[in-house]
Amino acid sequence: MTAPAITVFGVPIEGEFAKGDKVADRLFAACEDAGLKLQDDDVVVVTHKIVSKSEGRVARMPAGDWEARDALIAREGATFLRRNGSIAITKTIHGFVCASAGIDASNVEPGTVTLLPLDPDRSARSIRSRLKRLGQVDVAVIICDTFGRAWRNGQTNVAIGVAGMLPTVNYRDTTDSFGTLLKVTNIAVADELAGTAEMVMGKADGVPVAVVRGAPIRRGRGSAAELVRPAHEDLFL
Amino acid sequence: MTAPAITVFGVPIEGEFAKGDKVADRLFAACEDAGLKLQDDDVVVVTHKIVSKSEGRVARMPAGDWEARDALIAREGATFLRRNGSIAITKTIHGFVCASAGIDASNVEPGTVTLLPLDPDRSARSIRSRLKRLGQVDVAVIICDTFGRAWRNGQTNVAIGVAGMLPTVNYRDTTDSFGTLLKVTNIAVADELAGTAEMVMGKADGVPVAVVRGAPIRRGRGSAAELVRPAHEDLFL
User: What ipTM score was computed for the predicted complex, to two decimals?
Assistant: First the structure.
């Protein structure tokens, strides 16, 4: 039997997260409880939800109160790009284009919502360095959220924070099997990893962390900020 | 040691594909050669490149000849949405929004390009039923391509053909851990699977097939056509 190239582990964490909780510490303990020993070059994908809660990025918002929601979007410093009924597509202070500035009423106390971490790249770096200390292990960390996209139905998980890896793998300098220089291929592997992780996280199952082993990441000082296409290069803003 | 929830296998296939080649037969033989026995509920992800070649969807186009490229895009029946330098963002006859109607000069004889399969959902169904016959196994099949997207740098693999599974997993009817009804979550799991597969395929490595085991797919008669957002519902066309 051939060995799999990539393996994906779900890491359940019991109990809620609240302001001041140490995500990396609980995550590391949960890995140990699950019998999963983190290894160098593992990618640890963390749903932003537990990061936001730990960072106190929670606000009151009555369910379905779109006026309150819009006020909160504005308070978050996001700009409105499009509206359609109750849907508001926005650009966040991080540059992410997503619904409602990432404000999310799921998996949080009714009447409250989570906001995106203020600096998810920094949050990812912080989790990564704490894991290094706890486990003497050199992993990459991705913080993810579920975003819709243009043109295609359905949402996918994408990377909103990245640490310890480059967010894209550039095939620009390589040649294909015919020797043709691959000019424009720059794979957003951090987003593919976030999508991979989503499949073991589900939406309501208490699995806020996934560990992906064997992915072809390039190590280095990367960030999710690099995944934001500059407005002047975007043809669809 | 905990068992991984998802495992991903790369399936190398030696030699080129040409018109008339039977993708499912070569794929099945390659799995056997790799010691990989397909199982029910596996997702077999196939790069469109070998499907296009097998279906004779190849055309002559001198490298970098943008006039010839534009003529070919028009011949493919695609419409031009945006232009920026040599980049042409188009909508294909299938409804996919992508660069150059999916015309691709990589991994093909210099001076030629591959075109998208005319009906990738049908191609996926055909591979799936042939695999069922060859291996007495009930897998899902995804045909993938590498597309750019709005707002975010880098490309990801997405599903352009689907058979034997629903392309999205709908959390609409479920509640989260607080009992809140999840209203808008409809995960494009077929795209997440395509992205997962990309990581073992690479771009130039002779691995045109990946097998994903353990993914939370819902079986049924699905198609990639369902992933195309109708134009009247799209805020960014």
Answer: 0.95
Q: Does domain A13-49+119-229 have CATH number 3.30.1330.100?
A: yes
According to CATH, the superfamily of the domain at A58-116 is: CofE-like domain (3.90.1660.10)
Could A146 and B187 be called an inter-chain contact, meaning their C-beta atoms sit closer than 8 Å? yes
Query: Domain extents for chain B?
Result: 38-50+117-227
Count of alpha carbons within 13 angstroms of residue B69, beta-carbon side: 21
Average of pLDDT values for A15-23?
Answer: 95
Residue type, A115: L
pLDDT at site A54: 98
**Cα angle for residues B35, B40, B45 (degrees, 5° grid):** 70
Q: Is the pLDDT of residue A100 over 90?
A: yes
B38-50+117-227: which CATH architecture? 2-Layer Sandwich (3.30)
Residues of B in contact with A229 (CB under 8 A): 150-153
pTM of the model: 0.95
What is the chain B residue with the closest CA to A16?
B177
Cβ distance of A199 and B192 shorter than 8 Å: yes
- Whether the predicted pLDDT of B183 surpasses 60: no
